Amino acid sequence: MVAIHWLVAFVVFGLFALGAWMVDLTYYSEWYKTGPDIHRSVGVLLFFLMLFRVVWKFANTGPRPVPSHKRWETVAAHAAHGVLYVLLFIAMVSGYLISTADGSAISVFGWFDVPSVTGQIKGMEDVAGSVHYWSTLGILILAVIHALGALKHHFLDRDETLTRMLGH
Hints:
Helix content is 70%, strand content 4%. It is mainly alpha-helical. The chain has a single domain (2-165), classed as Fumarate Reductase Cytochrome B subunit, CATH 1.20.950. The protein has a two-stranded antiparallel sheet with strand order 1-2. The longest helix is centred in the last third of the chain and has 32 residues, at 124-155. The chain is elongated, with a radius of gyration of 18 Å. The two termini are 12 Å apart.
């Protein structure tokens, strides 16, 4: 499960960087179509990985909190993880709605297509785009806070929180 944690983190930051970069592409850029295609394809695959992760999380117990953690730290960590999961699914669903607002399917690297379930809905891409922007920004901010918390535990508290997150 540690590997999935880091894979999701890497993919989320990569998608954020790609998304931030591709919004400024011009029609004449060779990446104008390729960048969004990669972004959508990886986003769909991330959705399936996150579904697996949620099922796994409910079917298996996670590691017990480090005994030296204060109660508020444990509650805050669980709340942050919960909000991260919700924001990730909001970002992925809103990204799907942006891409399928015109009724077209999403081709995932040419391997398979994810059809539109909404058909054509005028203006949906604008609303979904706003939701996508704010949810991804929230993910980024919360992920940075999460990382800072792990560093705090490692360098200030000198406990094994970070080493457990690294799979040691």
